[in-house]
Design goal:
This is ABM domain-containing protein. It comes from Seohaeicola zhoushanensis. This protein has 96 residues and is an alpha+beta fold. The protein is 30% helix and 31% strand. It is globular.
């Protein structure tokens, strides 16, 4: 399970929101090996913060999507100038 959090640059919220909804979410949902995508949009108390929770079939599927260095944030060139900071965490998924 991969949790990827983004803080946009001030004033870039709307532009990143378009990228988030039109590019990032469809890309993840259409990628083989990603079995769940849970996108998180900003709240009024954190208007520049976006997140994704991705559940992959296995580590090989995650690496196929983001590369061998899966612990580093995968940055799409379209988002590079919009984002101030990124945080990424990985966990073993536990079915409840």
């Amino acid at each position: 399970m991969r949790i990827f959090q983004v803080v946009t640059r001030p004033g870039k919220e709307a532009e990143f929101a378009r990228f988030f909804h039109e590019t990032a979410i469809p890309l993840m949902r259409g990628t083989p090996g990603i079995v769940h995508v849970l996108p998180g949009a900003p709240r009024p108390d954190s208007p520049r913060e976006f997140s994704f929770v991705m559940v992959c079939k296995d580590l090989a599927a995650l690496k196929a999507f983001v590369g061998e260095d899966y612990q580093s944030p995968n940055i799409d060139p379209a988002e590079a100038e919009l984002v101030e900071s990124r945080d990424i965490r990985h966990y073993d998924y536990v079915e409840g």
